[in-house]
């Protein structure tokens, strides 16, 4: 996707690329070019606000450790942020990076190997596609896309590029999620039916209002049109507003609030553990129940996603109370319980009377937990780039796109007040066929479905309910004198 002043709108771009992208989802990514460990990777940072600063800190630390990485270019629409980032890198390295307010200059720079997309959400897909087409490896902050329609085109661009992409759900570099996936694949949970996750916060100022406003935030110091991306079809043109700039997570044109900023993180972790991808149908509820401060996104929300693999994912949150609910994965044989304050997870078996297994005691399953998740995520990404192996990334585009679609559909469901379905890359209103499908499966006593790579045996005595002997008496009577169980 070439980004120019005459670029097509987001809607036109999506309309012309989604069909080919859907087919491309099944393709194997082009092998990425590798970088010898002796060659320093040169990084350009697009967006030097709060998250961009975190990436600069991580990269400077890795450079100090001898990792062979240099930040050579920084980009931001706010002059103060841009100058501060450039000066920080200069003090740490003795070299001042190239600084620009136009991200296209970063893509034009042949010295840049890696582009970090840390701009607001509505820019993520467009910048990632443009960077890939320019031959750059990409570290893109979450969410991977702002809308469901952007997901397949950006994944297709990645598969065709021969570049490595890491998406910024950095907690996927915590070993617990892949350990849980292996635990499930080994059949320890039996048939998995439900997962549950959460994000609960509370603050004095209201969620995301903690991003301060200052007098120097003016149209003279901020390229407002570039921030909005209106001429690229990314957000509607509107008058300059300090709150819409600094607190952009509160407004639909640039974010989806809880859905994109928080649920994407949690959903990514859960689908990594579950081994599933795109959902079949999604619904959501919530509202602005307390934070009546001009924001557009809800302060309380719940997402429910159903999967064709025969399981359900629930994510719930409020920004008005920090008392959480349990994060867990439920299966017929037991429950995985995640405590993010410690490593690994707990396994709580179900009652032996129900499962016919002998396990009954709570077990802790250890897994490696990094001290700094962002640093670990960068180390994982840099290894994938140097080895030319995109599949090494802990949050690759296909997983990130599935999480983004799930949460974008939830945001649309909340705003439209209806159930939405995802069918081979197309969004459609929900209807009766989904429930009817499960009724037909039940009527035909079809073996339960499993997530890919799961090895539990659905035909073993402890994997499925055992009908009581009297169930043989069930069945429709042809007449009042003809007992089908006779």
Describe the structure.
- With 486 residues, the protein is an alpha/beta fold.
- The chain is built from 14 helices and 16 strands.
- It has helices at residues 10-24, 50-64, 79-93, 103-108, 124-133, 151-161, 176-185, 224-228, 242-246, 258-274, 352-355, 373-387, 397-416, 433-443; strands at 41-46, 69-75, 98-100, 114-117, 137-140, 165-167, 192-200, 281-287, 300-307, 311-318, 327-331, 334-338, 345-349, 363-365, 420-423, 426-429.
- A ten-stranded mixed beta sheet has the order 14-13-12-11-7-10-9-8-15-16. Strands 3-2-1-4-5-6 form a six-stranded parallel beta sheet, with helices on both faces.
- Helix 5 runs parallel beside helix 6.
- Mean pLDDT is 91; it is low at 6-28.
Task: Identify the notable features of this structure and list them briefly.
486 residues; alpha/beta; 16 strands; Dihydrodipicolinate Reductase, domain 2; 2 domains; Rossmann fold; 10-stranded mixed sheet; 6-stranded parallel sheet; 14 helices; single chain; globular
Which sequence of strands runs across the widest sheet? 14-13-12-11-7-10-9-8-15-16
Largest sheet: 10 strands, mixed
The sequence of SSEs as H and E is HEHEHEHEHEHEHEHHHEEEEEEHEHHEEH
**What is the second-level CATH architecture of the largest domain?**
2-Layer Sandwich
């Amino acid at each position: 996707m070439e980004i120019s002043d005459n670029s097509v709108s987001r809607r036109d771009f999506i309309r012309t690329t989604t069909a080919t992208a859907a087919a491309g989802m099944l393709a194997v990514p082009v092998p990425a070019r590798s970088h010898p460990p002796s060659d320093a990777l040169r990084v350009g940072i697009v967006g030097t606000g709060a998250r961009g600063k975190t990436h600069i800190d991580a990269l400077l630390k890795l450079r100090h450790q001898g990792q062979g990485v240099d930040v050579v270019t920084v980009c931001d629409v706010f002059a103060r942020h841009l100058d501060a980032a450039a000066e920080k890198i200069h003090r740490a390295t003795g070299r001042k990076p190239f600084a620009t307010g136009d991200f296209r200059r970063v893509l034009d720079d042949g010295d840049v190997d890696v582009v970090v997309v840390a701009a607001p959400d509505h820019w993520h897909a467009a910048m990632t596609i443009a960077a890939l087409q320019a031959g750059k490896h990409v570290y893109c902050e979450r969410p991977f896309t702002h809308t469901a329609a952007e997901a397949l085109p950006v994944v297709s661009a990645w598969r065709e590029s021969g570049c490595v992409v890491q998406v910024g759900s950095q907690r996927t570099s915590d070993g617990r999620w892949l350990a849980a996936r292996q635990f499930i694949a080994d059949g320890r949970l039996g048939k998995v039916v439900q997962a549950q996750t959460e994000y609960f916060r509370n603050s004095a100022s209201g969620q995301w209002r903690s991003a301060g406003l200052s007098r120097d935030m003016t149209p003279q110091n901020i390229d407002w049109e570039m921030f909005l991306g209106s001429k690229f079809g990314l957000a509607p043109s509107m008058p300059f507003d300090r709150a819409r700039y600094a607190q952009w997570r509160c407004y639909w044109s640039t974010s989806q609030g809880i859905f994109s900023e928080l649920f994407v993180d949690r959903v990514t972790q859960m689908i990594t553990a579950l081994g599933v991808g795109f959902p079949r149908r999604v619904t959501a509820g919530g509202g602005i129940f307390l934070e009546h401060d001009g924001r557009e996104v809800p302060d309380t929300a719940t997402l429910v996603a159903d999967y064709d693999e025969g399981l359900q994912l629930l994510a719930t949150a409020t920004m008005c109370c920090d008392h959480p609910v349990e994060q867990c994965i439920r299966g017929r044989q037991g429950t995985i319980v995640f405590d993010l304050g410690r490593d690994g997870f707990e396994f709580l078996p179900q009652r032996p009377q129900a499962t016919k297994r002998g396990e009954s005691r709570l077990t802790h399953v250890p897994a490696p937990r990094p001290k700094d998740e962002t640093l670990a995520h960068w180390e994982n990404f840099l290894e994938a780039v140097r080895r030319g192996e995109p599949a090494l990334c802990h949050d690759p585009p296909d997983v990130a796109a599935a999480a983004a679609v799930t949460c974008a559909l939830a945001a649309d469901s909340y705003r439209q007040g209806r159930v939405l379905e995802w069918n081979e890359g197309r969004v459609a209103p929900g209807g009766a066929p989904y429930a009817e499908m499960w009724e037909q499966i039940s009527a035909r006593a079809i073996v339960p479905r499993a997530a890919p790579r799961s090895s539990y045996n659905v035909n073993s005595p402890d994997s499925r309910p055992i009908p009581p002997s009297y169930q043989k008496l069930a069945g429709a009577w042809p007449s009042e004198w003809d007992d089908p169980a006779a």
